[in-house]
User: Fold these one by one.
Assistant:
Number 1:
Amino acid sequence: MPIEVLLVEDSPGDVRLTQEAFRDANKSVHLHLAFDGVEAMAFLRHQGPHIHAPRPDLILLDLNLPKMDGREVLARIKGDESLKTIPTVILTTSEAEADIVKSYQLQANCYLSKPVQFDAFESLVKSINDFWLTRVKLPKQRQCG
């Protein structure tokens, strides 16, 4: 079974690094991309070009996004009965205490700071894979509609 991961990230460099790291860590990961918060919500709600989008097993969410920032996306995910059970991992460059606190108040499942070095970033993605996609028991996928 493929593992569906939604990456919500506006930095092309970070998208590429994440794609490469998952390619090395777990070949069964299907990485879907949303470049801003509006696109992420359209994907999750099967709107527009995302009508046939799969329900993600995991969401990797940046905080600083165009159109709708990650905090608002997180609030909408966790406020939606059909989406709130999807584990949502904040993956961002911010190390600000206020962002960490706010993310947990909005029910993020965990908060990770992106390292700048590729090796450290790759190691972080591997640890996300090992924990969230290998060890953790996730709810069985169900289509929302």
Number 2:
Amino acid sequence: MVHLITRISVIGIAITTAALVILIAAFNGIEGMVERLYSSYDAPLTIRSEKGKTFKENTIDLAKIKKVEGVTEVSRAVEETVILKHQEKWVNAEMVGVDLNFLKTCEIEKHIVDGYPALEENGKPTAIIGASLLDKLDGYISEANGYEQLILYTPLRDASISRRKNPFKTTTLAISSRMNFNREVNAQYILMPLDFAQDQLNYDGEITALYLGIQPKADAFEVKERLQQLMGPNFKVKTAAEKNELIYKTSQSEKRIVIIILVFVFILAAFNLIASLTMLFIEKKDNIQTMQHFGAGKGFIFRIFFFEGLLIAGKGIVIGLALGTAVCLTQQYGKLLEMPNSGGEAFPIEFTVQDGLLIVVLVSALSAVMAFLPVYYLVKRASR
């Protein structure tokens, strides 16, 4: 009976430890995937005005911004909500007027589905549209001429709505390509030349944001602090993580909740360890009395059973770590599980040495506590 309970205890600890390894690796993979999806499009740093939607280009010194340590690229941008029309289809979209520096920073060529990523052809402006956004309009990039034609409705500044006056500026715009970044960008955004967007909005040297690229090894928050000191209180500098704060915080919160639940499950599984040590203590009661007659003290007996508990838990932890790591490696290289609607892409898994150490420390500490409490109580009671 004691051996059966011991085996159950080892199995319970092993399964819970393996689950911790697999789920933490899965959350790391999801977090990394989300970060890659959003960081590919979103600039590492964005500068906006604190006082209004737009600001004049001549109120900032682009040369000084480029000289800030860690900054590699500076792109000017104009953002506005517009309406797109194709035949009988109408959709709202987020127009972003950008310069060529932005296309380099977001590596647009890696994210093109159809067409060629151009903002100008033959002296005429062209646009790059989100893949899902063009699908909503039932449009496609024609192989014959390489374009799709849309009608762009841009709201005019200070325009009033009346029967005689159209509050929108209407322009035909050629779409050169479709981009695929993440769900939000794919479904809402359309990129076009900065000067064309400014002309559409009647902006005279005005922009709404600056997008900044930084060096690969640079710390975004440190570069942000340098830029904030340079720009002063009239401007707000944000990192990509701060811009998508809800997404990152939700991912972190879910990870913490899952870890807490699994720790609770581990504690429940470790109750088998308490049962195993209790049964073992009862079974060896005669041997304990014999040792006491030979002069064994409480501390000696305590150490025997305490280390026995650690050995049982340690066996389960080692098996669980090995099992969890094996599953993670198999998923990474063998693609056991695929993400739905991903074209065969494997579910992301990322397991780090830091995560392994965290799990070992966590489950070892809990095992030590679960071994200590029953042995301490049983030895104390037996010595009365």
Number 3:
Amino acid sequence: MSHPRRLLSINTAQAQAMIISDRRIMTAIGKRAVSTLDDARRIEVKPLGLVGDEQSDLTVHGGLSKAVYAYPHEHYAFWQTVRSQAKAQDWGEPLPHGLLGENLTITGLLEAGAYVGDVLQFPDCRLAISEPRRPCYKFEAAMGFKQAVKMMAQSGYCGFYLSVLQPGTLAAGESYELIPGQREVSIAELFKAKMRRD
């Protein structure tokens, strides 16, 4: 059963220092919800991303083609399970939106049904799917267990980057329409191909 196409949460972060493998790294992966279903404030979307959000390493995140990162909420149960098992801990609170580094936590669109060039039409903003996210060591550090990158590569639960076709505002709770593009390559197919090359 497919979920309705909806924006559950908008998440942002400022870049801050994190110690990873004894190195001090600047990262903005630690996103926190700034617009939720309980507090649906409007967040401005500009050509290079959300107001209030930073990208620390522009070689892998950010720029016009990777201005916003969306992640399907449907995968959260998977990450809750593997993270609990890897960290040998009881199931705690549900994972907070933004934990995977995403700006938009959405429902109703998975990687196999998301194609490069498809457009997400929100009431006041249009975003185009550009490419899959590639997991890195910062993702592993944020998730708190060693196999996180491998698990994303194997599962294909990568989410996708969006470019901003029409700047405007977004608020949690809004629905979006998926407007198909050329539909030549899906995010799932592209992610598999990129992971094979690495």
Number 4:
Amino acid sequence: METETPAVTARELLRHALAVVAYRGAKAFRGVPPSFGNFKVTDDTRVPVQILAHVNDLYDWALTMARGEWKWSNSTPSAWEAEVARFHAGLAALDAYLEGDAPLGYPAEKFIAGPVADSLTHIGQINLLRRLAGSPVKGESYARALIVTGRVGAIQSPPRVEFD
């Protein structure tokens, strides 16, 4: 049975959303085969490392938004492990900004509608590509996962309720 929780601020909700992205991303990125970053389904689809680099660009953009700017940059993908490290570093930088008391440059809704939602879509694409590459990620009841606000690194809580 659900109990009522105290109201959270927009910043707290955004920080929790980042922890959700980190949890789901860490799960999608763990244990990939060595060649996975360049796995190609068709000639006109992006490979996983390109998708992950785009996700990282989203969080670079989100940090500029937090600071009151609107600056987008397309990066050139690095190696898979470097992009995974960049993913967690980008989330950590944004989380640290949100944890502080500097003003938020745009309303929280812009972050949810833009970088957060887009990144979750792309993490889902990476999960799909893992399945197609023969290295599926187990499904999970994410509502039961132990997702901790502020925990945005590669080390996450172990899954509680996974399924095939």
